[in-house]
């Protein structure tokens, strides 16, 4: 399928052929959901931890004598029911990462790209480059383009000036083609691919 190519001044500079097998497949919400769940689970820290009774440092002396106090008998100060004692079944340091087959991951990325194209929110940019790292200049250009919350995916490397100028703007993310992922594509209103980015993604997903 043909798609117009524009520059940052919103002027058409040509057209590009998009692969139907990557940008024109049927949208599968179930595949997208699995991919997003996999990504979010994988990035969880899993560092919550409480001390169990074997990790609490305390005297091993019996808290008080067995009989004659009128209280329930106790044998240890680190027992869970004692103040300052260990926690029963508390959280442990763990990984929340899940498994997801490579074929499903690749299909999910294709589906995300196809979904953006089907919604009319896929833009192909000639190049994402700036002469100077000026945030104000980039902000003016983006305001005219009216993209909203945007994800820009470039080629193998991102232009340093463009990335630096976009850093101070809250509504735009910039990634190299290798960093393209389902979650970031879906959470932004507009997906902007450079010509080099399109080529790299086709090579990656073929």
Structure description:
This protein is α/β, with parallel strands linked by helices and 206 residues long. It has 2 domains: 2-44 and 99-205, Ribosomal protein L4/L1 (Ribosomal Protein L4, Chain: A); 50-90, no CATH class. It is 34% helix and 14% strand. The chain contains 7 helices and 6 strands, in the order ββαααβαβαβαβα. The protein has a 6-stranded mixed beta sheet. Helix 2 (29-42) crosses helix 3 (102-118) and helix 4 crosses helix 5 (160-167). The chain is elongated. It starts with a strand and ends with a helix.
Brief account:
This protein has 7 helices and 6 strands; from the N terminus they run ββαααβαβαβαβα. The chain is of the alpha/beta class and 206 residues long. The longest helix has 17 residues, at 102-118.
Which shape, going by the Cα principal axes? Answer: elongated
- How many individual domains? 2
Helix content: 25-40%
User: Mean pLDDT, rounded to whole units?
Assistant: 94
The CATH topology label of the largest domain is Ribosomal Protein L4, Chain: A
Question: How is the largest sheet built, in terms of strand order?
Answer: 2-1-3-6-4-5
The top level CATH class name of the largest domain: Alpha Beta
Describe the secondary structure blueprint for this structure:
Blueprint: E1 2-6, E2 12-17, H1 20-23, H2 29-42, H3 102-118, E3 122-125, H4 135-145, E4 150-153, H5 160-167, E5 172-175, H6 182-187, E6 190-194, H7 195-205
Parallel strand pairs: 1-3, 3-6, 4-5, 4-6
Antiparallel strand pairs: 1-2
